[in-house]
């Protein structure tokens, strides 16, 4: 009975955590601060715990500034620019940093600090001048970056990275010890219900289902697969310039080959400088998962296999999503999707609609691996000890006290 009670309570706690307004948070510092005493990785942090963390970082010799985005999610940190680097290069290049993937309402923690003799002041060049006492500066990046246009979002994030970099550089120039905490107000995947103030998760069907931005979208005639990109792919031959592929006006039919159960080919015709080009996406199914093995590039009756730079696949019934860029290439040809890219073959729904994307982040974190290693050592020691105890044998013969005693004759 107690086992089922624990299971039910665990499910309820997990549900309450999943519906909270949690945002990723990262902290960087310069000088001699208490940031080094914080754990390098902590999956979840509540509002009260985050408030205590801010309290621990502050002292009379340390300037603490908090920068807030209107909307922030983990995808913003994993998104990369055309140069292959993170949009937040300040955090990518910072050696002394701490990352917290899930912090519950960090803005509320600031409000709680303001009731504990702290002055939360709007950040500017004179925030710390001619001031004393417990001060935490707040820089509010109040521009809404949640936009359906991928380019504007990336541009805004890059601009905000420059603003945060300027704040951090100016503070480190003026003061010896500085801690900058970057977080958000709202997770864009969580919104309030119209009927109540309770938060609920937004299903991540993503781009192609909303019908707002369908620049590059392929749905095969039988509705078995769905391929989407926020922009047309570009083609580079022999390290030449990137040439955008344009849809062919003469033949817009989608090619489909589903003659084999474990293989699915979906293709479409493009035009490059007046020349016909066909791209065929080759999907393979392996037991309970699928993978986009390659893209067949056909031009002038010659077919070339373009392989992805990173594995593209997911479990059956889930889609694959990447913030981009996604690159397919061989020795001389490079096909690149610069923006958001999402694919799913063997759709399970009747209408052409993406299922939830499979999580691409690594499951095994360093603390998990360390725990498994220590557990393996402990199991080995316990197993060895039990084996040694079981090998102990007791005597099976004893002297009879009523029998004749042993007599030993000693000759002189």
Automatic annotation (TrEMBL):
It is a single-pass membrane protein. GO terms for biological process: regulation of cellular pH. Keywords: Membrane, Signal, Transmembrane, Transmembrane helix. This is ACYPI009898 protein. Residues 1-20 form the signal peptide. Residues 362-400 form the V-type proton ATPase subunit S1/VOA1 transmembrane domain. It is found in: Membrane. The gene is ACYPI009898. Belongs to the vacuolar ATPase subunit S1 family. GO terms for cellular component: proton-transporting V-type ATPase complex.
């Amino acid at each position: 009975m107690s086992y089922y009670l624990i299971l039910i309570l665990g499910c309820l706690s997990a549900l309450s955590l999943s519906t909270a307004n949690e945002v990723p948070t990262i902290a960087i510092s310069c000088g001699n601060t208490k940031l080094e005493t914080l754990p390098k990785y902590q999956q979840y942090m509540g509002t009260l715990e985050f408030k205590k963390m801010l309290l621990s970082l502050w002292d009379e010799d340390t300037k603490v500034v908090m920068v807030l985005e209107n909307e922030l999610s983990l995808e913003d940190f994993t998104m990369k620019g055309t140069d292959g680097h993170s949009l937040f290069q300040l955090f990518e290049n910072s050696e002394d940093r701490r990352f917290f993937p899930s912090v519950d309402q960090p803005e509320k923690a600031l409000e709680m600090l303001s009731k504990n003799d702290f002055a939360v002041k709007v950040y500017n060049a004179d925030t710390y001048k001619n001031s004393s006492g417990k001060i935490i500066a707040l820089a509010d990046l109040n521009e809404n970056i949640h936009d359906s246009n991928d380019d504007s979002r990336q541009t805004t994030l890059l601009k905000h990275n420059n603003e945060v970099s300027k704040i951090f550089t100016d503070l480190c120039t003026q003061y010896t010890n500085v801690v900058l905490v970057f977080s958000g107000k709202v997770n864009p995947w969580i919104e309030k219900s119209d009927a109540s103030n309770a938060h609920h998760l937004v299903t991540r069907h993503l781009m192609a289902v909303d019908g707002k931005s369908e620049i590059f979208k392929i749905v095969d005639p039988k509705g078995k697969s769905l391929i989407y990109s926020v922009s047309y792919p570009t083609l580079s031959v022999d390290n030449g310039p990137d040439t955008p592929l344009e849809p062919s006006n003469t033949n817009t039919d989608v090619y489909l080959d589903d003659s084999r159960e474990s293989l699915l080919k979906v293709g479409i015709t493009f035009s490059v400088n007046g020349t016909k080009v066909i791209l065929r996406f080759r999907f393979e199914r392996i037991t309970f998962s699928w993978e986009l093995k390659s893209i067949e590039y056909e031009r002038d009756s010659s077919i070339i296999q373009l392989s992805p730079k990173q594995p593209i696949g997911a479990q059956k019934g889930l889609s694959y999503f990447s913030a981009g860029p996604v690159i397919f290439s061989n020795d001389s040809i490079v096909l690149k999707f610069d923006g958001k890219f999402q694919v799913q073959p063997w759709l399970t729904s009747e209408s052409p609609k993406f299922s939830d994307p499979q999580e691409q982040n690594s499951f095994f974190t360093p603390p998990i691996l360390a725990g498994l290693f220590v557990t393996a050592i402990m199991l080995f020691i316990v197993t060895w000890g039990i084996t040694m105890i079981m090998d102990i044998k007791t005597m099976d013969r004893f002297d009879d006290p009523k029998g004749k005693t042993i007599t030993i004759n000693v000759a002189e």
